[in-house]
Specification:
The protein has about 850 residues and is α/β, with parallel strands linked by helices. It folds into 4 domains: about 190 residues, no CATH class; about 240 residues, Glycerol-3-phosphate (1)-acyltransferase (3-Layer(aba) Sandwich); about 90 residues, Arc Repressor Mutant, subunit A; about 110 residues, Arc Repressor Mutant, subunit A, CATH 1.10.10. About 50% of the residues lie in helices and about 15% in strands. The strands form 6 sheets. Strands 10, 11, 12, 13, 14, 15, 16 and 17 form an 8-stranded mixed β-sheet that branches. Strands 1, 2, 5, 6, 7, 8 and 9 form a 7-stranded mixed β-sheet that branches. Strand 22 and strand 23 form a beta hairpin. Helix 10 runs antiparallel to helix 16, helix 22 crosses helix 25 and helix 26 crosses helix 27. The N and C termini lie far apart (about 100 Å). The N terminus is likely disordered.
């Protein structure tokens, strides 16, 4: 018997090595530390379906990862197991008709018996999922039988063909161990415990398969046809035919054309092509892709339809996110892309990788809107993951843009129609050290017209592949369960009936609040990196230059502050030391070193200094509160603590609206109080008898406080410009649009006079947002003719600016606003 067992092991080893002459695997979770295995407890693996090929792959990956062998015998109490694995499904039935069916295998029964007979014993059951390729299921066809690892279980011949075709794209996922002792706890009989364990494992494998492969896919032609014959689209076809005086057949052809223009065409070959292509591109232009909190989408994908909502900084965003998800065992999402990206050749490739295309506006075209809405509803209702950008377009300033509600509204209305499939929003923050479109963004920041996407522009961009763009960080943020959000925002929503056309009166306000929450959650997952940290510090100096030693000290102190009081549990920090960061950014040619015998100077100038404002803006919300506190000590040696809390709290609502920060107006006083304590602990402030003092001039702490004070200075200067114009001009002279225009012009003038390397300083949208929130907070009122008047207490806020602003700039602003007021005397504007 021993000789037979030895021969069997040798033959198994031979087959394993033979198989891996062809097979190549991608493994997720194959690490004892990552799995959290307890070395004192026995490990038993479970595979879903009985197959020799699965056993061979499992053992190979156990050897590679230095995990306990799946082939070793185990003694579990009084039970002796020949191998450390079992199958959840076994083959049953007659020859040529045998099917995989759920069974309670002898080894699972032995494990349960061993645990019941030995109260001190526990067994770690490690589920292992294996896919030969990751093609979603298609409609029934011979191609499906040959080219995919489908939801139905393959026969031996089909399995051989699958291995031959997909063997070099084999995916293996080790999952967290399940304690057999915990499962059996409180269950009276071994049989019931065995059945419960098997049921838990069946649910687990089904959820993992859903997350990795995704729901069943209809053929694209079938999906297009189903959209056209849906009741909502048929109604829109009849209405269009009547309105445009065309035949129903022509209106139907138009609807089909819209559907064909919109619908994606995901194929595993397309995904694999993009995977190979993008792997080469990332390795060429990036120093790696860091991923944090990947367990968030991995868990969410098991039971929900996921809507990925990333920030939008670059055209690379959607390619990068799909790449990260695919390499972490998740099906690529269907991505909403602007119709401008449906370029020749490129559009077809993107469509096969998951892109579906949408027009910028649906206004005035009910038929197109009906087709698109029905497509979205179909996707979400079937459980597909979807991705879209709530900002609408790419941010040219590095700030998170005000979210647009269109796609969110479609998602919400679809869920109201049918809420059986849960929907979860997963925010994603993508942090670049250097963006691919830096050159075009620089031109646009200087006032150049946005370039239209074209095939020639794409080839023009390819020349950038010769350059290095640093490292990219992809952070997943706190998910938002749509049902839970609605329960809080509209507690009665479940009691109403909804159809495709119904828009509840509360929809608009709910969409706005949900959009804001998504933007806040995106910012919660921000990534600190050497470029945005160094950019933040250098831009807080008068000439964007700093002694290397002082720069390193301030980098260390700034990161220490942010680690002492983290903005969010989802944010990430850079690896390495401050000296390594400085050298790294210098190698990237973002800053340069000016040699000096008393110590080298690190300098950013010209286009690089302007671009650094982009990267600084990525993380400005993380340091806004300590920077606002520090700004109070620019022109003052001491301030009562209570007054400092009040001043920061009074300006916070406008900063929050601009930077999408997560603290509410009611929470901010406690947050400011906490940050004062943190700054006192680090000797950036001194506290005595209710008074706050700045540290001694010339000390390292004073230098850091001064640098911090400049980090939000331009934001405060913009606010002061708008309020000074209002104060000088007086009530009833300006409407919101005129105030926005004149504020922008004055800011542009100040930028020219004081050499501010920040084009967004006079961005009209920032003034528009500030004026809007002055009205929301009732600081401004609007009369029946649209002219503005301000509350009396705004006078005190403007006077408090002397604590913060440089006297010269404040005087210049007052002088210009005085002249402006004189010009406006007489006829109203």
């Amino acid at each position: 018997m021993t000789k037979l067992f030895g021969f069997s092991s040798l033959f198994f080893t031979f087959l394993r090595k033979l198989l891996f002459l062809w097979v190549r695997t991608e493994v997720v979770g194959g690490n004892a530390k990552e799995l959290g295995l307890d070395p004192a407890k026995p490990v038993v693996y479970v595979l879903q379906h009985s197959a020799l090929s699965s056993r061979l792959v499992l053992e190979q990956e156990c050897i590679r990862a230095n995990l306990p062998s799946s082939q070793q015998p185990l003694q579990i109490g009084t039970e002796h197991l020949r191998r450390s694995f079992f199958f959840l499904y076994g083959r049953r039935g007659q020859m040529f008709r045998r099917r995989q069916s759920p069974i309670l295998t002898a080894r699972l029964k032995q494990l349960t018996h061993g645990v019941y007979t030995n109260p001190e014993l526990d067994v770690q059951i490690v589920p292992v999922t294996l896919f030969w390729g990751r093609a979603p299921d298609k409609e029934k066809s011979l191609l499906k039988l040959l080219l995919s690892d489908p939801w139905a279980v393959a026969g031996r011949l089909q399995k051989l063909l699958i291995i031959l075709i997909h063997g070099r794209n084999t995916y293996v996922q080790f999952n967290k161990p399940i304690s057999l002792r915990q499962v059996a706890e409180g269950i009276e009989t071994e049989e019931l415990a065995t059945r419960k364990m098997a049921r838990i494992l069946r649910v687990h494998f089904r959820r993992v398969r859903q997350a990795v492969i995704g729901p069943d896919l209809s053929h694209r032609r079938t999906l297009v046809q189903s959209l056209i014959i849906s009741p909502v689209v048929k109604d829109a076809i009849r209405e269009t035919a009547k309105r445009d005086n065309i035949t129903p057949a022509k209106a139907r052809m138009r609807a089909r054309k819209y559907a064909d223009e919109i619908v994606s065409n995901v194929s595993i070959s397309g995904v694999r092509f993009l995977d190979i292509l993008l792997t080469r591109i990332w390795n060429r232009i990036y120093n790696g892709v860091r991923v944090n909190n990947i367990e968030i989408p991995q868990e969410a994908a098991k039971e929900n339809a996921i809507v990925y909502v990333p920030c939008h900084r670059s055209h690379i965003d959607y390619l990068l996110l799909s790449y990260v998800l695919y390499h972490n065992g998740l099906m690529v999402p269907h991505i909403a892309a602007g119709i401008n990206l449906n370029l020749p050749i490129v559009g077809s490739i993107l469509r096969r990788g998951g892109a579906f295309f949408m027009r910028r506006s649906f206004r005035g075209n009910r038929l197109y809107a009906a087709v698109f809405n029905e497509y979205m509803h179909t996707m979400l209702n079937r459980g597909y993951s979807i991705e879209y950008f709530v900002e609408g377009g790419r941010s040219r300033t590095g700030r998170t843009l005000s979210p647009k509600g269109g796609m969110i509204s479609m998602t919400l209305r679809s869920f109201l129609r049918d809420s059986r499939k849960p929907i979860v929003f997963v925010p994603v923050y993508i942090g670049y050290e250097k963006i691919l479109e830096a050159g075009s963004y620089l031109g646009e920041l200087r006032g150049a017209k946005k370039e239209k996407e074209s095939i020639f522009g794409l080839f023009k961009t390819l020349k950038n592949l010769r350059n290095s763009f640093g490292q990219v960080t992809v952070n997943f943020g706190e998910p938002i369960q749509l049902a839970e959000f609605l329960d809080q925002d509209q507690p009665q929503w479940r009691e109403q009936a909804y159809d495709a056309e119904y828009r509840p009166t509360w929809l608009s306000g709910t969409v706005d609040r949900l959009a804001e929450k998504i933007a806040i959650h995106i910012n919660d997952a921000a990534a600190l990196n050497p470029v945005n940290l160094i950019g933040t510090l250098l831009l807080a100096t008068p000439r964007q230059a700093m002694d290397e030693r002082i720069l390193e000290q301030q980098l260390s102190m700034l990161v220490t502050l942010l680690q002492t009081s983290p903005y969010s549990q989802y944010m990430s920090y850079p690896e390495g030391t401050p000296s390594e960061w400085v050298a790294y950014v210098e190698r990237m040619n973002i800053v340069y070193r000016q040699k000096h015998s008393l110590g080298d100077i690190i300098v950013a100038e010209g286009p690089n200094a302007i671009l650094l404002t982009y990267y600084r803006n990525n993380i400005q919300h993380l340091i806004a509160i300590p920077a606002l506190i520090a700004s109070l000590f620019r022109n003052n040696n001491t301030i009562p603590r209570e007054h400092a809390v009040y001043l920061v709290g009074s300006i916070y609502p406008y900063v929050r609206a601009e930077l999408f920060m997560h603290w509410t107006k009611e929470e901010i006083d406690d947050v400011v109080d906490h940050w004062i304590d943190v700054m006192c602990q680090n000797n950036l402030l001194l506290h005595e008898s209710g008074l706050l003092y700045r540290p001694a001039i010339g000390s390292n702490e004073f230098v850091m406080l001064d640098t911090l004070s400049r980090m939000m200075l331009q934001t405060l200067e913009r606010y002061y410009i708008a309020m000074s114009i209002l104060r000088r001009v007086g009530p009833g002279k300006l409407n919101a649009a005129a105030l926005e225009e004149k504020s922008s012009l004055l800011a542009q003038r100040m930028s020219m006079m004081y050499g501010l390397n920040a084009p967004e300083f006079f961005d009209k949208s920032l003034f528009r947002n500030f004026i809007k929130h002055l009205q929301i907070n009732e600081i401004l009122q609007q009369d029946e003719n649209g002219y503005l008047a301000h509350r009396e207490d705004m006078e005190a806020i403007v006077d408090d600016a002397r604590l913060v602003l440089d006297p010269d700039m404040r005087q210049s602003i007052l002088q210009v606003t005085h002249n402006l007021a004189r010009q406006l005397e007489g006829p109203e504007v």
